[in-house]
Amino acid sequence: MRHLFLTALLGLASVSSLLAQTPSQIPLPSTATAAGGGGQRMATGKITGVVTDASTSKPVEFATISLVSAATGKPIDGTVTDERGRFTLSRVAHGTYSVTVSFIGYETYTRPAFTLSEQDNEMVLGNIMLKSTQNKLKEVTVIGEKPLVEDKVDRMVYNAEQDITNIGGNASDVLKKVPSLTVDLDGNVQLRGSSNVRVLINNKPSSIMANSVADALRQFPSDMIKTVEVITSPSAKYDAEGTAGIINIITKKNSITGVNGSVSTSVGNRSANGNTNVNVRRGKIGFNANLGTHQQYNNKNESELERFIKTGSTAEDFSSSLNQNGSSSRRGGGVFGQVGFDADLDSMNSISAGVNLYQGRFNNKGAQHSLTTYQDGTEEIQSATSSKNKHSSLDLNLGYTHIFKPQQELAVLGQWTKGAMDNSSGQDNDILQRYSNNPRLLETLRNTNEGGNREATLQVDYTHPFQNKTLLEFGTKAILRRAESDALYRRTFAGNPNEEAEPNAFTYDQDVYASYASYGFKLGKNYNVKSGARYEYTNLQGNYIAPFRPAFTDNYGNFIPNVMLSRTIKNQTLRVGYTQRIQRPQIWYLNPYVNENDPKNVSFGNPELEPELTHAYELGYSSYFKTSSINMSVYWRQTNNAIESIRNIVGEPGALPINEANWQKQGVAYTTYSNIGKNATYGLSLSGNTKPMPKWNVGGSLNLNYINLQSTFQNNAAWQYNVNMNTGYDFGKGLAAQFFGNYSSPRPTIQGKFSGYYFSSFSVRKELWEKKGTLSVGIDNPFAKAMKVTSELENRNFVQNTINQNYNRGVKVSFSYRFGKMEMNQQPKRSKKSIRNDDAKAGESN
């Protein structure tokens, strides 16, 4: 517990001690400085005034007031106006000055030089009227188009709303097109070859991502997404977990004054979407709401599996073989809802609140034929499965921000999330033949699983600027999590009224307490440095309710340093960085319950898993030209105690023991997780955009990785790359077309490899009614009706090959309509404060 108190008190004491100082104690860029010696102070004066709009005579809040020295021509002090447009500069040393007043949307005002002296130590500037440079924007018109991909100092931004091939899809379709990201056949996301990523929505975690990121992304409508941010070198302000980095999905909303919104719908042969977005901002109050629905149908998959259990060095030397052929289909949908509110209480205080809701239901049906050949006979099983999966989530967040002066802010944030799932499945196994006796048995399996997760977060952040252009950030955070799983596995046989029941109830608590400090400063004119450190203390406990086992507990602390150095000259930026990351296993990695939905291929968790530790180094370069940009990074990521899935045969040499005392079935393959050893990734990331012609844009990216996996029982290493290309052409009169293509090469695993695959899409868009309406037609995967992925696994006990096909060729027609008028917002754009719980290893879709 002393670590817990140390972490919390360290951060809170730092904030309290700084805030407890009087204004004269806090370092301010004030001209009221002590003279020479003797402790005497300079004679000082005061400057006051009021800033108003020249056309409306209304006060202009948050206008920037700069006090400029007549001797040097440089600003030496400043402030901002309050809600009534008033400002005061106090304790100004006697001398000659000028004052400039500026604010977005207005011409800058300059007050000619004046003098403060012993006789005249107060200057009343009176009413300063600013002239507007632009009173209104054209109705629903976008001025200036962003590039599809932007490379910023600490992140790469993909502007999803600029890509017309995203219309009518889901979040998984969007992430396929983001440089550095790959999405496999099952919807699992990888960043630079690693699946250890954390997905956030609007800088915050969402309970919809808690159970399966892959499933959640398939259910999230693409029409709600504005941008996708990829952060590979997070600063100390971010949670330390997520070894490869963070993916932040930003949804559409608008902070421009007025009432505006959009309605969109999309219908295709595989899915249908609907979305409504409304934004309202009046004065100091803003409101936004988003309601979206997504339906999936005709999602079909086929699979083949061939496995040999070896007794010798050749494929003919085997004790048994297994051949499986199966097919499945998925149908269902969900509804998303988002509501946000923010208000400026006055010039220094603001509050915000938000609610996110999701409710979804999916039905799956499948059939599988299994033939096992032994040396003394065969076993044949025909299986029919069906399942119903319900998911719901609720996220509540509340924030308060106090601005002492520009860049000096205190933010207090709270969030509570709750997710629930209710899965029920049934399986009929028709055992057609068992060895040479030819019995016909009907085995019925029923599986129910009710689960949920709850998470509460409290976060305090403080930012303090200093006169020499340095910035100090520090804060503290607490995350309290609970995950629950209550499963019941039942088996019956034809002619036998007795039912075999196997319950499994498991709870998992994970509490993380953290404090951080980050310091940014300039070196000379062109160098920027940002360094920091974060300490995280983790306390976890797992409880087995049924069947009963002793609880397991663990607690540990991690000190996580990071540093980033960048150099900018004109349009070129060079940066180098280092950070550490950790990855904590979640409930699906830890629960030892044996999942027997496929009696020939079972899976279970490992409660003895330890967290991963990763060292990440990166060197990046970006350059911008008149119509082109190029971004390049080389990186090295070294992960110790890497968590990987492993497969083996029960009862064979080297197989791990299964924790179920009554479960030992010779010859059955199992999948579980283990800290295999080390995972080293060396990579190159290259992306760029250009405009060969004013109406033609071309962009692309390449990610090249050398992955080296080492463990005590098996090693593997190979090159892996991902390349994508997008191009668009504007034909004029509102008609445009865009094409996207992606290829991912084979990827190594500790026991084999997955094959490569490609994906493409093409869309045509026509704008209608003075750009208020948009009609588009798109096709996904036009050159192949299915994505096909093969895998190869091998160790000293078995050889296994699989083929999976996902039929994902789709055609869709989409329409959207934008409404409302937008006016120039006379309020400043406050920095958005939000909670980022990017600290848990997400599960993969199986």
Automatic annotation (TrEMBL):
Cited InterPro entries: Beta-barrel_TonB_sf (IPR036942), CarboxyPept-like_regulatory (IPR008969), OMP_b-brl_3 (IPR041700), Plug_dom_sf (IPR037066), TonB-dep_rcpt-like (IPR039426)
Keywords: Cell outer membrane, Membrane, Signal, Transmembrane, Transmembrane beta strand, Transport
Places the protein is found: Cell outer membrane
Main localization category: membrane
A GO CC annotation given for this chain: cell outer membrane
Signal peptide: 1-20
Lineage: superkingdom: Bacteria
Gene3D superfamilies: Carboxypeptidase-like, regulatory domain (2.60.40.1120), TonB-dependent receptor, beta-barrel domain (2.40.170.20), TonB-dependent receptor, plug domain (2.170.130.10)
UniProt membrane topology term: Multi-pass membrane protein
Entries under SUPFAM superfamilies matching the protein: Carboxypeptidase regulatory domain-like, Porins
Pfam family, one: OMP_b-brl_3
Region (Disordered) location: 824-846
Skewed-composition ranges (Basic and acidic residues): 835-846
Domain Outer membrane protein beta-barrel, chain residue ranges per copy: 405-817
Keyword Transmembrane: yes
Protein family according to the UniProt entry: Belongs to the TonB-dependent receptor family.
This protein's name: Outer membrane protein beta-barrel domain-containing protein
Organism: Rufibacter radiotolerans
